[in-house]
Write a structure and sequence with these properties.
With 166 residues, the protein is α+β, with helices and mostly antiparallel strands. The protein has helices at residues 42-52, 77-90, 98-103, 108-117, and strands spanning 21-32, 38-40, 56-62, 68-73, 120-126, 129-130, 137-142, 148-159.
Length: 166
Amino acid sequence: MPVLASPPQSYKRVKPFSALMSVLTKRIELRTEEENDILDITGEVQQAVEESGLDAGVVTVFVPGSTAAVTTIEFEPGLAKDFPAMLERVAPVDIDYEHQRAWHDGNGRSHVKASLVGPSLSVPFERGVLTLGTWQQIVFVELDIRPRRREVVVQVMGEAETEPRT
């Protein structure tokens, strides 16, 4: 039988779960112009966490629909070009898509790309601040082939501070 070691000193002891969990939902409205628009929504998500008044928990970012996605990247001009280029290699314009044969709407690749990147993202927060890395931003990615009005659902779940910060 293996011997279990003590947790490393860097592990943080947390209080047991309490019944004071809160859930708050906010919606962010966006407009996109074209396929591959990438919008940094980190500020709006952080604002939702701050407005919640919660100290620690997790925020879920979700885009309804099947031709858009959310993810994290280092949002800078090079990656803003590299990311769509990568998706083009995975789901190119110039191949046949069964979706196109069925619906004739030209966005079969949009559905494929959106399913690969995904419609949601969860980010923990501590002391009311998202735990993102230094160069990590939350981005919305438009993958449809036409301008769209979009809604991003931001759901903040967690606990309010119960003890003063030291």
